[in-house]
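Memo to structure team: turn this sequence into structure tokens by end of day. - J.P.
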Amino acid sequence: MNRPAVAITGLGMITPAGNDTATTWAGVCTGVSQARTVPSLRGCEIDFACTVSGIDLDEAVGGRTAYRMGKYVKLAVLAAREAVADAGLDPAVWDGSRVAVVIGTSSGGSARLTEQAVALDRRGPEATSPSGILLTIPNMPAAEIAIEMGATGPSLAPCTACSSGVTALSTARDLLVTGQCDLAIAGATESIVFPVAMTGFARSGAAARGDGDPALLCRPFAADRAGLVMGEGAAVMVLERADDAEARGAAPRALLAGAGATTDAHHPTSPLPSGTVARAAVEAALRDAGWRAEDVEHVNAHGTSTLLNDATEAALIGRVYPHRPPVTAPKGVLGHCMGAAGAIEAGLTVLTLQHGVVPPIANLDAPAPGFDIECVTKQPLRLPVRRAVSHSFGFGGHNAVVALRSP
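Reply from structure team:
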């Protein structure tokens, strides 16, 4: 199939490393983890995470609508505003019927749902919020962005666990190439740093534990890696057909060249040890882009710092890319932003293409013995990159990969 090229013309981010794209990029390039003790987690088995800070979200969102938005929605709205402005677009004058919104999330407003359940149990129905449902359901980021921006085209909220962000981008690309929209606002958001979720990850054995500095605990691909550190944030992009972008004089940040998705169908949390199905997602993205494996000059890895996931992904990278392109894993700095992780990491891959810089992996001196991959450590690697891939592998065996190239 001869698909039209799809351009990424706008990018917005709000993460533990910064409250916009530029500060996020600068923070990730330091290679310093943003994990810190979180007062609201006092008394929990795990009381640290990478959180968004230094911003009053209600004030930033503004107006009379913030009361009905959970934190995950506010993060998405702010990232979307930045992306649309970055693309040089004005929602006041566009044809909203040709604008789609696709915003993924893994857990939606589970934090607020928990608060409402506690209030109901302790004080009865009158203690709960009339906006309780709006504060919790996972489609509200897409809905609120569509409402604010007058986007009346398709509005979707994909949920594929930690792959939700990449699923959102590939879904938006499909809407564009099939002519269902002319612009797509796409990405993902997540905010689940609250006691119930943190306890769940602690009890599952997936989360890092330890005394001392929390910033040292997330170590993707290290021999002594001991689990993930939770993060939160959002990343949103504006996608449009490359010909349309050129016609309006927009300068693309990157092109979304290909996408691939598979499902392990193996286990709710553990990856298929052979990695063959995840590899198939990578190969599908490369075929879609029309690339050979050796064309890939950089891999933005899923890199969770968990024993099984890192081992499986390292083996996959070593087999698929024998020429050893440089690998980074942003979760060392940002924590695991769950449903938002794939969108954030795809956004960082776009910035690598733009700036010719591969950020380092936090807390890593060298990959574990037997991991035949070229990890970037200590300092950013300056390297002209024209073609790169970003991996996302989620609970439930959801594998999603995007291939990105410079314009």
